[in-house]
Every structure is written in C-alpha cells, then in structure tokens.
Fold these 3 entries.
Entry 1:
Amino acid sequence: MKTYKPTSPSRRGMQTIDFKKYITSKDPIKALTFGRKRDQGRNSQGRITVRHKGGGHKRLYRDVTFTYDKRDIPAVVKSVEYDPNRSGFIGVLAYKDGERRYTLLPKGVVVGTTVIAGENAPVEAGNSLPLKKIPVGAYIYNIEIRPMGGAKVARGAGVFAQLIALDGGYAHIKMPSTEVRKIHAECFATIGQVSNDEHWLVNSGKAGRSRWLGIRPTVRGTAQNPCDHPYGGGEGRQGRGLRRLKTRWGKPAGKGQKTRAPKKYSNVFIVSRRQVGKASKGE
C-alpha cells in the first residue's frame, strides 16, 4: 500500500494501491474500448432505483471477456492494466491465433504467463476448466452459473470461492459470502484468486474521492424527519427506538434478518445459507 504524509487534513490516514508495483501499461488497446453511458442508479424508465449514485469521472469502458468460448488455444499475458469499471486488475491476452482479449487477472499472474481454457487444462492459476475437472479444495473465481452462460460469480478484487464437493452432476461451491451453493459441474471457472487483494485496505481520506468514483453522500436515518424515515424525528440525537432494523421503506434489513424471497427459484441450489456477520472474500 502507498501511504501519504499528513500535509493536509485529507491526506492524513490516506492509503491507496501502489499501482507502480502491478501495472505495466497505462494506455488501453483502442480496439477493445468504447464509450458507455452510465445508468447511475436509474432503471429503464429513468427513475432512481439505487440511491447515492451519480456524477463521477468520465470512464472509458474496456471490453473484458467473461465467456469461455475460446478453448484449447494458449494465450500469453501481454500487460497488466487498471480498469476504472472494476476493482480487480485486467490483462491483455494474446492468443496463438492472433486474437487479443481483455480478461480479469488472478493474483500472481504476471506478464509472460501462458494461460489456457479447456477440458484438460493444467490446474494452475489463470487456467480455466469445467468444475468437474477441478480438484476439491481449489480456490476459483469467474464462475459460470449456467454452462456457456459467461462468468457471473466471484469477480471482485481479492475475492475467491472454494470448490468443496462434487456430487450428482453438481459442484458444491463455498461462495465469498460463506453460502454453499450447487452449480452444474459442466460450468467453467478460473483457478486462483482475483488480483488486487489489497483493495479493501484503501482509505480515501476525503469525501471528494468518493464523488470522483460516482458515490453520492448518504444521510443517516436518525438525522432525517419522521416523514422521511422510520428512525427520524425526536429532540436532539436519538437512537432508532425500534427493536429491529428497517429500511427507509419499512422493510427489514441487516443484522441477521432474512430478506431473501422465501419462494425464490434458486432456493433449491442452496446447500447452506450464508453465516451472518462473517468476513467476506471466502474467509
């Protein structure tokens, strides 16, 4: 991590990633980038459905591939790059057939490393295999939920899941949230842990850096009026005055309260629910 001298109040305690240790190229490949409109918390009707989003620095989108459609063709990692749209580092893969693609890199993979995706690929960091071919106990990321559906699970910086069992055509995966879930054994995943595992140690130092990232301020419920929040009102500083946590709309939230839909379609794939209060990232 990179620390700073307290030359100003915002510099005091500030910690950032020392990108010079990891990044090998600053300029992205033009053919693999394009502009993209950011929804900033709005749905297809333009209404805000996720609060506290908006503004932020303009971003160039890198076309990172999460599909496993290029199999049994070795590729060499040509560069390690920063991506403003995600927390992990990305890299350029130069395939033997001449194609280049961006991919999400695992921890420990550097420039010059050869990776491959396929049924019989070696079990090494950066290689991609079907879950049925991965040894039990291995750390994995970039996991498909449906065969050929593209990676959806475990894509954040420093995150990994763990394969803990194979049974009846399904793999039992311990998610970063500690939930154990069944995924079809034909689905692909990549060996290793997502790069930039120091991401959670970053200390912004000031509110302005959050605004650069597109994160708007959050007002505490107890600081609001009674008409705006269940915790609002009262003379002076007050506690919430309620036994259970609530959201702004009166729905239960956090601290062990179940918020999952009781009849959700994917309930049949959950072997054990996540343990509330446990550390994330599979720890």
Note: Residues 68 and 247 are 39 Å apart (CA to CA).
Entry 2:
Amino acid sequence: MAAEELTVQSHIQHHLSNAKMCSVEGEIAFNKACENAGFMTLHVDTLAWSIGLGIIFLMIFRAAAKKATTDVPGKLQCFIEMIIELVSNNVRDTFHGKSKLIAPLALTIFVWIFLMNLMDLIPVDFLPAFAGWVGSTMFGMDSHDVYMKIVPTTDINMTAGLAIGVFLLMIGYSIGMKGVVGFIKELTLQPFSSNNIFAQILLIPFNLLLELIGLFAKPFSLALRLFGNLYAGEMIFILIGVIGLWQLPLHFPWAVFHILVITLQAFVFMMLSIVYLSMASSDSH
C-alpha cells in the first residue's frame, strides 16, 4: 500500500515538475542537478511552449491578414474578426485614455494566454510520455528524469512575468501622463489630505504605505489569479489521469467545463490589464 501511494505521489510530482537548465560550477546542468542552483534556473519547457505558442499566434493572425478580403470572408477571417471586435469593444468601453498601444496589447494578452491555457486540454500523460521516450531512446536518459510541463500558465514564473510586464507599463503610463513629480504626488498626497501643510507632511508616510500596497497588489493579483486557477485545473486532470482507463468518463466533462475556465481566465487577465492601465493613464488626481 505504501509503495502504491509512493508511486502515485511520484507520478503527480513528476507531472508538476518543470524541465530545468542551469549552470553548476561553470557547467550546464539539468533538472535534479538544478535543485540548489538558485534564481538563475531556466524552465526550459515553459520558455519553449510560451515562445512557440506566441509564434503560432503571430503566424495565424498574419495568415488571416494576408488573405483578408472585403468580399465574402473565409471562416478564419470571420473568427479573427470576432476576436478583434470583442477586444476592441472592451478596450473602447474600459480604457479612457488615448493610446494606440492598448488595443494590440489587449489582443496579444488575450490570445496568447488563451493558447497557453489551451494546452491544459491535451491529455496530461501524452507529451510528457513522448518526451520521456525521446530522452531515453535518443539520449540514453532515464525517462523518470525527463520532465515536460506543457502548460506555461501553471508556472508562477510565467504568470509573474506577464504581470510584471503590465506593471511596468502601468508605471510608464503614470509617469507619462502625470510626470515624475505628479506620480510622486499621487503616491504621497492621497487618499488622506489636509489643507494644513504640516498635517499633510505627517500624512505622507501613511499615504505612501497605502498607495504602494494598492500599487503592488495589482501585479500580484494578476499573477496569482491566473496561476492558481490553471494550476488547480491541471492538478485535477492529473488526479483524474491516475485512475487509468476509468478516467475517460470523468475527463470529458471536466475538459468541457475547463474550456470555459481557460477562456474566462484569459479574458479576466486582459480586462484587469486594461483597467489598471486606464487607471494609470487617468489624470483625475
């Protein structure tokens, strides 16, 4: 019984482990050798799948743009136009500043995150088993030492990277709209204010603390919400896969429900990004 539990535990742990690459004593090392390598460890599978899906996104939209016509559109053009219209309408209703970057950024965020989330619908054992077979047959590696985590958004490093990108844009838009002095005033002179200059000076530390908490909570909320939902969904797929052939009656309804989850999470990340950038672009304070 203990051996069976250990096998199930190791199976789950294997699926939740990233393929790592690092430098140990000046030499390239992989996976288990990178456990104590620290911050400078690359998650190769996350990078490969996210970049590859980003390229696929660009190729699909480029192909649709090249074949676009004002006559009767094809199915791909109709589908792309529906996505663009959805994003455009939400940007128009939510973003109250003026920027040519927001709509393309929102479209990229939505489609790219959706494609990364979509990898969650691939059977959890398929690509990791294939990677293990390639590693054992072509490189003589033990298949249990070959890791392949195919959903980039189940890696906190990926979702944090996306959130940090939006956060830097927020800072850039705030400084661009209000200037450096205006941005500092926004952080220090609200929400508590006073007509008495000495009282206002005393309130600056409290204002700064509250505003910094609110500012840094935004990228944290973006990163953790996307990561938490996709990680939980992947965990359920792995747990369903543990039961073997009996997984099929459970796998299908959860996969159908998960289509809504992956779409909703991509949409929520896009909408929050637009809202945060709109708040950063506002000159109301």
Note: The longest strand covers residues 20-24.
Entry 3:
Amino acid sequence: MSAFLKQLYADRLAFAGLLIVLALGLSALLAPALAPYPEDVYDIHPAQRLQPPSRQHPFGTNHMGADLLSRVLFGARITVVIATVAVGSALLVGVPIGLVAGFYPGWASELLMRLADVFLSLPQAVLAIAIAQTLGPSIPNVILALSITYWPWFARVVFAEVRSLKNEVFVEATQALGVSPWRTLLLHVLPNVATPIIVRSSIGMGYTILTAAMLGFLGLGAQPPTPEWGREIAEARQYLPEAWWYATFPGLAIFVTVMGFNLLGDGLRDVLDPRLRRGRP
C-alpha cells in the first residue's frame, strides 16, 4: 500500500485528483459541520436574496436568500450518493456479464454483447434523459437511468480483457489441474481484470456526476428545495449576468469534481498498469 501511495504521489496530477476526491468525500460527510448556515439550507430569507459574495456569505446567496456555500456543500452529498450508487450498480451488472460472456463463447455471449452494443450505440446522455423523463423527476430515477446507461461500458471492458486472458498459460494450468471453470474465473481471471475495472470506475464517477448535473439542470433530478448542483445552475439562469456568483460556484464545484476523478483515473491507470503510463518510459 505504501509503495502504491508513493507511486501515486510521484504523479502530481494524479495526487491532485486524489486530494480533490478526498475533499469531495469529506465535504459530503461533514456538510452539516462545514456549512456556515446548515439550518437555513431549505429556508427562505427574502431580505437576503441574491447577495454577492461577502465575509458573511462567501459564495453569496441564491434567489431564496439561502447561503450558497451551504447549499453547495449539501449538494455534494446528493452528488456523491448519485454517482456512487449509479456506478456501483452498473459495475455489479456489467462486470459479471463481461466475465461470463468473455469466458464462455456462444450464442448467449453474443446476445449479451449485442445488447451492450445497442446501448453503446446510443448517446448515453440522450438515453439517460429519455429514461429519466419517462420515469419522472426524482433522485432514485436519475440513479436508475445512469445505471442502465453505464453498465455496457463495464461489460465491454471486462469482456475484452477476459477474452485476451482466456488463453494465457495460468488459465490453461488451472484447467489442467482440474480447477472448476467458475473457480478459475473468480479467483484467477477476475483479479487480473481489476485494473481496467478500477480505472473505469474512477473515470465513470466523473462522467456520472456530469451527467447527473445535466439531468438536474433539465429538472429531472432533485426537486426544490433539495440542493443539487445542476439544479442550482438552472435556477441561476434568469439572474445572469448580475448575480454571476449564483451559477459560478455550483459550476466550479462540478468542474473541479469531474476533473479530480479524471485525474485520479489516469493516475490509477499509470500506477496499476505501467505499460500505459502517459509519456513516461
């Protein structure tokens, strides 16, 4: 573990991504303690509406007079929940499908991969919008829409890795020793495809957060007065450019978070698979 962290620290961009992800997690976990006005997140204060950033309100206030910094911090909770559950659900569906389809060729394997190709042939954002719109605006429906549209990525990545590993010597050795196919698949093949799964999960977190924010912007995610970054930007449109802070800080939160997960994903790829290191021997 220490060697892994040293390698990750040596890559400054990856380490910066790790710090951003940790900061997001802590912000979500400690939002009630970090927020300047946690008790006012859902309240209305007409006398304080659209106040610019100040010492009292570092991010300013929104159109309802609520402290924007507090809502951004509480919005991190919604973001973490949506991304974690959606990516975790997609992983639980896509990885087993990729393992089985890659290890057991046949009509069932072809059917599963063609189903994945159908999903991949459609723009994920458009498909997620269609599903969320059909199901109705809510956080659970956003999570379901994102899970349905993201599992094929895991399935395809794992399928390709398993197909390349299936004829390796260590797999043939387990078969010669009489090890059951399922034991070979779970104990010997799966650990060897862990690297692309981890990298895809990290990058997927960033993409899922971005897509969830887009759904929130379109009114398909969390409903008022629940704080959600995409929803905050949507509500800020009619007050631009005068209340520039209203859209700027939730937008920066999305940008920095997505960038953090992407940098971390690239760093994990470099550390876990040295053959793919960016521009390094």
Note: DSSP finds twelve helices and no strands in the chain.
